[in-house]
Specification:
By secondary structure, the protein is an alpha+beta fold. 27% of the residues lie in helices and 34% in strands. A hairpin with a 4-residue loop joins strand 2 and strand 3.
């Protein structure tokens, strides 16, 4: 069976198909919208800026932050999503794009 060229959000977050070791040359690019409490926006931005492979592309006074995340495996994507979602002041994270090769 051929590997899919792109995972659905549900597949990615649930770990389907069964997790396997990522090839050494695998590269994942993920687009996220992070929603933070507006009063905590500066603190959340400061923490996001030091996460390896994460780039901030914009933010709004309402607490919305547009980021891309580059990782080496889908497990890293899921781990980073969880870490970001549990930051103090973060209300939600939404995966809006995922591509790997």
């Amino acid at each position: 069976m051929r590997e899919p060229s792109s995972w659905s959000r549900r597949d990615l977050l649930s770990g389907r198909p069964a997790a396997s070791a990522a090839p050494a040359d695998e590269h994942h690019v993920t687009g996220l919208i992070v929603h933070a409490r507006p009063e905590h926006l500066p603190e959340v931005l400061a923490v996001l800026r030091v996460i390896p492979g994460l780039d901030i592309h914009g933010d709004s006074p309402t607490g919305k932050i547009v980021v891309t995340l580059e990782t080496r495996s889908r497990d890293d994507v899921v781990q980073r999503l969880g870490e970001i979602g549990e930051l103090p002041g973060v209300l939600s994270t939404a995966l809006v794009y995922h591509r790997f090769g």
